[in-house]
Amino acid sequence: MIASGCPTRSRLSRVCLLAFCLLALSGCENTDLQLATEAGLEAVQAVTLSDRDVQHLAQQASLQSDGKNHLAPPDSRYARRLARLTGQHLDADGFRFTCKVYLSPEINAFAMADGTIRLYSGLMEMMDDGELRFVIGHEMGHVVRNHIRKKLQLAYAASALRKGIASQAGTAGAIAASQLGGFTELLVNAQFSQQEEREADDYGAGFLERQGYDRKPAISALRKLATLGNNHSFLASHPAPGVRADRLEKEPAAPAKTGHTIAAILTRLRLLLQSLYAHLKALLPIPHSL
Question: Exposure pattern of 263-281 as b/e (b: 16+ CB <10 Å)?
């Protein structure tokens, strides 16, 4: 469906209406005035978040998630493998991505709007190196295409709505108040639309090609995820992998370009040197000034 008028203005109008409704609660009996006011302000802020606000919220959510999970230490086989694939950082389209591993048998991965990417060791056990590169590129695509930013705004607005309900005395308010800490969980388990998944898949396949690989690992990765079954938690936020694999398989790969190939070789060389440096640093006392 195509909405008429300016989408941003329309969205702002709807959230402002929500804010007005939440603020109107302050006139009701047994209402927490401060909580209702905060809810109204947050509802408006959800669609007016600056880039700096988005980065701050994403960083807070990333830290909270890292605190609740067991991060793989740098000398673990998972962290070493990931460092070999990505280096310390990945820079693309104006974003800097930082990838780490959660030691968990869960098959999952997610990204935050600040460039945080987290893979679960269960997923790493399931995927080969090429398939992991695609998964990383896919998560990068969600960030670059602003899918994560949209989910952050929705989670922020949802927090405002819960505060509005929580400002009312009684059972419903108590239940809503108990959910106020779910902001990070909403982001980690964000559901993406089919269009968003297609865009992220295309970015992931392009990420492989830009590094000098073909897109076959993208297809095999999605085929593996399709075997998990419809009730698996990963498919709640990354639906229909089999259909997505079919689409990538039917679409022709992007034609190679000379400059493109040189850039891919340089990228792979840089990652190799970063990996070599990391191994040498673990063996020898290398000054930080190098």
Answer: ebeebeeebeebbeebeee
249 catalytic? Reply is no
Instruction: Answer whether residue 140 is part of any domain.
Output: yes
Name the pLDDT band for 118 (thresholds 50, 70, 90): very high
**Domain-embedded: residue 59:** yes
List all residues 6 or more positions away from 198 whose beta carbon is below 8 Å from its beta carbon.
244, 247
Least confident of 22-26, 104-108, 194-198, 221-225: 22-26
Q: Kindly name the residue from 38, 131, 139, 196 that is annotated as catalytic.
A: 139
Chain-centroid distance, C-alpha 199: 14
Please state the domain count of the chain: 1
d(CA 244, CA 215): 13
Q: Which domain holds residue 276?
A: 51-144+184-283
Lookup result for tokens 């690992």? 217
Buried b or exposed e, range 51-69, using 16+ CB within 10 angstroms: eeebeebbeebbebbeeeb
pLDDT tens, 22-40? 334 344 444 444 444 444 4
State the pTM of this model. Answer: 0.68
Strand pairing report for 90-92 and 95-102: antiparallel
